Amino acid sequence: MDRIEFHIAARDGRARTGALRTPRGEIRTPAFMPVGTAATVKAMLPESVRATGADILLGNTYHLMLRPGAERVARLGGLHAFMNWDRPILTDSGGFQVMSLADLRKLTEEGVTFRSHVDGARHFLSPETSMEIQRLLGSDIVMAFDECPALPATEETVAKSMRLSMRWAARSRDAFGDRPGHALFGIQQGGVTRELREESAEALTAIGFDGYAIGGLAVGEGQEAMFGVLDYAPGFLPEDRPRYLMGVGKPDDIVGAVMRGVDMFDCVLPSRSGRTGQVFTRRGVVNIKNARHADDPRPLDETCGCPACRSYSRAYLHHVFKSGEIIASMLLTWHNLHYYQELMAGLRGAIAEGRLAAFAAGFAAERAAGDLPPL
Ligand SMILES: [Zn+2]
């Protein structure tokens, strides 16, 4: 198979479940993509990431272009071979991270000039250079180069930025060309303004992409405002293409977004939290640093099948975390990624069986009940 195909197997309300089929393997949707910023999901071996149930990873163009460099990765056989992950990889365009370097960059119609946070060297990113870098990396799903304005911003600023992103989307499409087996996703912008989200979706659909991301959310607007946008924004995008909500999110963000028709997610939260002692469980977030765990022989979650829960106590995880031992990051990251993938599997199963509302209610009730009472 040399084409990427999206197949919807079942629907429940606005939610969908199915698969995005690629030459490197199938991505079951709704899907969560762990973030492998610098060609590694921190504290995890690639085979361990796969064992949690991940079908696809995300890599960051900005970080990889600066270090080790896209040409070097290409000479070494591409990102899959370089990092020992043979399944699909999605790369972002670098735009979001460059834009967050507010005082280290200069934005023009052509693109963005910026200084590297690694060595201060000057670099230039544009739709054309971003497509070339993502091609050199060997990414399966390539993201169009866009601008995401920092919020809060006026509607006028958001509109101007969105229209620039739509011109860049057309340039990204031209520069990407025809690459069988690789997909290009466009990114809807428009902040929290319905008319701008609609205008952006129309512009992207006219250009034509293999999938569509919803960008510019989860940037500090809060869950209520984000869900407000997701009540209409996915509906402006083509029904038969995957919809990807970038940078989201917490488990309850994901459940709410799936119910509003989103198919793909990525977020650093489960891996980053694993290194800061925040543990995601079906009973909500557990802080392993808390002294209440010091004498607790029970697992984090007795129903979880991950190595941290099968073979270690809360007391041990508390101890190795407090001692700064590397195994704490390894075990807690594994558990968090496992929890996220179990959540996605639960959502997929619930949609397939038409019981998503009951699943979401059970999810909320378990979280509301809170962690196990202390011993
Ligand atoms: Zn676990």
Automatic annotation (TrEMBL):
<feature type="binding site">
    <location>
        <position position="335"/>
    </location>
    <ligand>
        <name>Zn(2+)</name>
    </ligand>
</feature>
<feature type="active site" description="Proton acceptor">
    <location>
        <position position="92"/>
    </location>
</feature>
<dbReference type="GO" id="GO:0008479">
    <property type="term" value="F:tRNA-guanosine(34) queuine transglycosylase activity"/>
</dbReference>
<keyword id="KW-0671">Queuosine biosynthesis</keyword>
<feature type="binding site">
    <location>
        <position position="309"/>
    </location>
    <ligand>
        <name>Zn(2+)</name>
    </ligand>
</feature>
<dbReference type="GO" id="GO:0008616">
    <property type="term" value="P:tRNA queuosine(34) biosynthetic process"/>
</dbReference>
<feature type="binding site">
    <location>
        <position position="146"/>
    </location>
    <ligand>
        <name>substrate</name>
    </ligand>
</feature>
<keyword id="KW-0862">Zinc</keyword>
<dbReference type="InterPro" id="IPR036511">
    <property type="entry name" value="TGT-like_sf"/>
</dbReference>
<keyword id="KW-0808">Transferase</keyword>
<keyword id="KW-0328">Glycosyltransferase</keyword>
<dbReference type="GO" id="GO:0005829">
    <property type="term" value="C:cytosol"/>
</dbReference>
<feature type="region of interest" description="RNA binding">
    <location>
        <begin position="247"/>
        <end position="253"/>
    </location>
</feature>
<keyword id="KW-0479">Metal-binding</keyword>
<dbReference type="GO" id="GO:0046872">
    <property type="term" value="F:metal ion binding"/>
</dbReference>
<keyword id="KW-0819">tRNA processing</keyword>
<dbReference type="Pfam" id="PF01702">
    <property type="entry name" value="TGT"/>
</dbReference>
<feature type="active site" description="Nucleophile">
    <location>
        <position position="266"/>
    </location>
</feature>
<feature type="binding site">
    <location>
        <position position="216"/>
    </location>
    <ligand>
        <name>substrate</name>
    </ligand>
</feature>
<protein>
    <recommendedName>
        <fullName>Queuine tRNA-ribosyltransferase</fullName>
        <ecNumber>2.4.2.29</ecNumber>
    </recommendedName>
</protein>
<feature type="binding site">
    <location>
        <position position="304"/>
    </location>
    <ligand>
        <name>Zn(2+)</name>
    </ligand>
</feature>
<feature type="binding site">
    <location>
        <position position="306"/>
    </location>
    <ligand>
        <name>Zn(2+)</name>
    </ligand>
</feature>
<comment type="pathway">
    <text>tRNA modification; tRNA-queuosine biosynthesis.</text>
</comment>
<dbReference type="InterPro" id="IPR004803">
    <property type="entry name" value="TGT"/>
</dbReference>
<dbReference type="InterPro" id="IPR050076">
    <property type="entry name" value="ArchSynthase1/Queuine_TRR"/>
</dbReference>
<feature type="binding site">
    <location>
        <begin position="92"/>
        <end position="96"/>
    </location>
    <ligand>
        <name>substrate</name>
    </ligand>
</feature>
<feature type="domain" description="tRNA-guanine(15) transglycosylase-like">
    <location>
        <begin position="14"/>
        <end position="367"/>
    </location>
</feature>
<comment type="similarity">
    <text>Belongs to the queuine tRNA-ribosyltransferase family.</text>
</comment>
<comment type="subunit">
    <text>Homodimer. Within each dimer, one monomer is responsible for RNA recognition and catalysis, while the other monomer binds to the replacement base PreQ1.</text>
</comment>
<comment type="function">
    <text>Catalyzes the base-exchange of a guanine (G) residue with the queuine precursor 7-aminomethyl-7-deazaguanine (PreQ1) at position 34 (anticodon wobble position) in tRNAs with GU(N) anticodons (tRNA-Asp, -Asn, -His and -Tyr). Catalysis occurs through a double-displacement mechanism. The nucleophile active site attacks the C1' of nucleotide 34 to detach the guanine base from the RNA, forming a covalent enzyme-RNA intermediate. The proton acceptor active site deprotonates the incoming PreQ1, allowing a nucleophilic attack on the C1' of the ribose to form the product.</text>
</comment>
<dbReference type="InterPro" id="IPR002616">
    <property type="entry name" value="tRNA_ribo_trans-like"/>
</dbReference>
<feature type="binding site">
    <location>
        <position position="189"/>
    </location>
    <ligand>
        <name>substrate</name>
    </ligand>
</feature>
